[in-house]
Specification:
99 residues; elongated; 2 helices; alpha+beta; 3-stranded antiparallel beta sheet
Length: 99
């Protein structure tokens, strides 16, 4: 995916998952706890979505809006984002500073 800096006054859209809210069913819950703990070790900020809007505002972004979405998948569908999991994701839209 190409990345570039936003031009002054352009809109940006950020999407992230609050990994602290992920719930995955397993017939071996203790093992799943270990898997999720190991997975969490690589996350710089597992609950970043909750702080994105205020961080963008303090950086000078305008018209910051945040939407929260719950999503779930109960089928082992390779096209689905999560297989048998539930999580909250956040979409943050903002306009880059003008100066």
């Amino acid at each position: 995916m190409p990345w570039r800096e936003a031009e002054l006054g352009e809109s940006v859209l950020l999407w992230d998952i609050d990994w602290a809210t992920v719930s995955i069913h397993s017939s071996r819950p203790k093992r799943m706890e270990r898997v999720m703990a190991a997975f969490g070790d690589h996350l710089a900020h597992p609950s970043l979505p909750g702080t994105l809007a205020p961080r963008l505002r303090s950086a000078g972004f305008a018209d910051v809006e945040m939407q929260v979405h719950a999503f779930a998948s109960f089928a082992m569908d390779p096209e689905a984002y999560g297989c048998r999991g539930v999580a909250w994701d956040s979409v943050v839209c903002a306009r880059a500073p003008r100066d």
